Amino acid sequence: MADNTILVEHRRVGRQAHYRVLTLNRPDRLNAFIAPMHHALRQALIEAERDPSCRAVLLTGAGRGFCAGQDLSERVVNDDGPPPDLGATLDALYNPLIRRLRAMPLPVVCAVNGPAAGAGANIALACDLVLAARSASFLQAFARIGLAPDAGGTFFLTRTVGPARARGLAMLAEPLSAEKAEAWGLIWKAVDDDALMEEAHATCAKLASGSAAALAAIKQGFEAASTNSLSEQLDVERDAQRRLGRAGDYREGVRAFLEKRPARFQGRF
Ligand code: T3D
């Protein structure tokens, strides 16, 4: 049976490039994750990464929510049944997804169109640029159901909003508005609801016509910075700049600047 838990759309930018819109599509459940949706999203991300004409990914949700995390109706257990091994699901499904979003060379934009809760909030935070509708909210729902943040929540929160706010969000499990999320530095931007998708598409189109090599290096650089010392990071920056400085996009970028025209960057590979 065809699985439509992830909708995939190609949006062309120029003659050769495009970006892909991946829509979590279980709107009746606020796009909560079930295993087939994980598999479909994994496949869609692999295909986006493998296609050299794909230059960015836009992740969003269908309906009024972005994603409510794990579908809890899959987690109902009888008192006399064995407890679920949630570590196994994280190992098999959530952790590979977070690792993939962070490691893939394409920029990933997330348009949070409504509530982002549990792992749904942290999947958004794993993306490179997060735009959220002003009516959207971020909820570390875990403590409400006797769990602790997963899908990278403890990592992303401490590094974006700092330990005091991270602990408050995780322990009190209260929703954070999009505007406060922007003010606290958790996300890139809060946008009026009716402007969200237009702005998210414009952001992806801009990324898709940028230098793919530079964007991949920026992504790798920030990823490495989360654990490196300053000295190690200076080496990472040197190596990236050495590589980029020998590539065509830099030549074209400098020429375009001097000729006072927009740069025409090469493709991905
Ligand atoms: O399990 C593992 O493998 C480990 C990994 C865990 C990762 C996790 O994500 S654990 C955390 C799971 N998520 C949650 O605890 C969030 C649960 N949802 C909510 O708290 C609320 O729905 C929201 C705050 C997100 C939104 O509230 P609201 O009032 O806007 O919507 P609602 O009425 O609660 O939800 C609408 C429908 O979606 C509703 O169904 P109904 O009544 O219309 O038939 C609701 O039951 C359903 N829904 C929402 N979230 C989930 C869900 N159904 C299943 N699982 C959900 N997570």
Which properties best describe this structure?
269 residues, alpha/beta, 2-enoyl-CoA Hydratase, Chain A, domain 1, Lyase 2-enoyl-coa Hydratase, Chain  A, domain 2, 2 domains, six-stranded mixed sheet, three-stranded mixed sheet, 44% helix, globular, binds ligand T3D
What does this structure look like?
It is a single chain. The strands form two sheets. The chain has a six-stranded mixed beta sheet with strand order 1-2-3-4-6-9, with helices on both faces. The chain is globular. It contains ten helices and nine strands. The chain folds into two domains: 6-208, 2-enoyl-CoA Hydratase, Chain A, domain 1; 212-258, Lyase 2-enoyl-coa Hydratase, Chain  A, domain 2 (Orthogonal Bundle), CATH 1.10.12. The protein has helices at residues 35-50, 86-103, 119-125, 153-160, 163-172, 178-183, 196-208, 212-225, 230-245, 248-258, and strands at residues 6-13, 17-24, 54-61, 108-112, 116-117, 129-133, 137-139, 176-177, 189-191. Helix 4 packs across helix 5 and helix 8 (212-225) runs antiparallel to helix 9. Helix content is 44%, strand content 16%. Strand 2, helix 1 (35-50) and strand 3 form a beta-alpha-beta unit. It has 269 residues and is of the alpha/beta class. The mean pLDDT is 96. The structure holds ligand T3D. Residues 29-30, 32, 68-73, 75, 86, 89-90, 94, 115, 117-119, 139, 141-142, 145, 147, 150 line the site of ligand T3D. Ligand T3D is lined by residues 29-30, 32, 68-73, 75, 86, 89-90, 94, 115, 117-119, 139, 141-142, 145, 147, 150.
